C-alpha cells in the first residue's frame, strides 16, 4: 500500500505506507497520467529539515516534468 503525501499541480507524491521513518526524497512523484515524473531538487531545505528534523515532504523539489505528456509543475 502507498499513500499520497503531497500534491503539486497535476503531480502527486506517493510514499510506501510501510515507511515509518519519513525522510524527504524517499517517495516517488507521479503525474496525473500515471507516468513517473522527472524531478529536479535545487530548492533550499525548509526550516525543519535544516534543523535535522525531516518534514516528511519533498521540500527541496524545485521542478517536476512529465516525460509522457509534457506537464510541468
Ligand atoms: Zn523539509
Ligand atoms: Zn503526464
How much of the residues is beta strand, in percent?
25-35%
Number of domains: 1
Radius of gyration: 12 Å
State the strand order across the main sheet: 1-2-3
Compute the number of strand runs.
5
Distance between the termini: 25 Å
How many alpha or pi helices?
1
Low-confidence stretches: none
Q: What are the secondary-structure elements, in order, as H or E? A: EEEEHE
- Shape field: flat
Mean pLDDT rating:
88
Major sheet: 3 strands, antiparallel
Short characterization:
With 73 residues, this protein is mainly β. It is built from one helix and five strands, in the order ββββαβ. The model has no long low-confidence stretch (mean pLDDT 88).
What does this structure look like?
There is one protein chain. The protein has 73 residues and is mostly beta strands. It has one domain (2-65). Helices cover 5% and strands 30% of the residues. The chain contains 1 helix and 5 strands, in the order E-E-E-E-H-E. It has a 3-stranded antiparallel beta sheet, with no helix packed on it. The longest helix has 4 residues, at 47-50. It is flat, with a radius of gyration of 12 Å. It starts with a strand and ends in an 8-residue tail after the last strand. 15% of the residues are buried. Bound molecules: zinc ion (ZN) (2 copies). One zinc ion (ZN) binds next to loops.
Amino acid at each position: 500500500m502507498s499513500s499520497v503525501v503531497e500534491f503539486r499541480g497535476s503531480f502527486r507524491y506517493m510514499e510506501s505506507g510501510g515507511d515509518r521513518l519519513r525522510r524527504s526524497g524517499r517517495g516517488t512523484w507521479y503525474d496525473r497520467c500515471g507516468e513517473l515524473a522527472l524531478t529536479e531538487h535545487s530548492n533550499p531545505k525548509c526550516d525543519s529539515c535544516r534543523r535535522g528534523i525531516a518534514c516528511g515532504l519533498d521540500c527541496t523539489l524545485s521542478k517536476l516534468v512529465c516525460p509522457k505528456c509534457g506537464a510541468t509543475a
